[in-house]
Amino acid sequence: MAYEAQGCAIYTSTNGIVRTTDTKIGEVTDFTGPGGAAAVIDITHLGSTAKEKMVGLRDEGQLSMTMNFVATDVGQIAFISDRASRTKRTYVLKFNDAATHGCDFQGYAMQFSIAGAVDNKITANAVIEISGAVTYTTAV
Q1: Which pTM value belongs to this model?
Q2: Which residues pair with 35 in a beta bridge?
Q3: φ, ψ dihedrals at 126, nearest 5°
């Protein structure tokens, strides 16, 4: 069964479980990630008959998101502050389904930029650099 993106939300959390005290990053319009890759380590030697490889540690990559810029949104303000202070946070991406699936991970607020154009709204682009493993769960 496919998930609907409408209703998904991104939060900062103190323990990976969304509670009423956690901060929702407001007016997110789209996101990409988490996503990453592992390094490929070449272990070929002179006796090899073909390339031999092993996989290194996985790098969970980044989560990027676009949002309507709202200067008074508590989540956006916190993200900007975390970027300035280089604070590592726990983030939760909550999917929109009856079983409340989602994922949580730790990361750093790496980028926050705003953009505007004639006859358009002001948007913000933000990037979270993931540190450590991403945990997919049904208990967010």
Answers
A1: 0.84
A2: 61, 62
A3: -135, 150
Q: Report whether 6 contacts 94 (CB < 8 A).
A: no
Between CA 20 and CA 11 the distance in angstroms is: 10
Kindly report, residue by residue over 72-109, the tens digit of the pLDDT. Answer: 999 999 999 999 999 999 998 888 865 568 888 999 99
Q: How many domains does the chain have?
A: 1
- Show the domain range for 24: 4-137
Task: Identify residue 127 by its one-letter amino acid code.
Answer: V
pLDDT averaged over every residue in the chain: 88
Q: How far is CA 64 from CA 67, 86, 116, 124, 126, in A?
A: 10, 17, 18, 11, 6
CATH number at residue 9: 4.10.410.40
Instruction: State yes or no: pLDDT of 19 exceeds 70.
Output: no
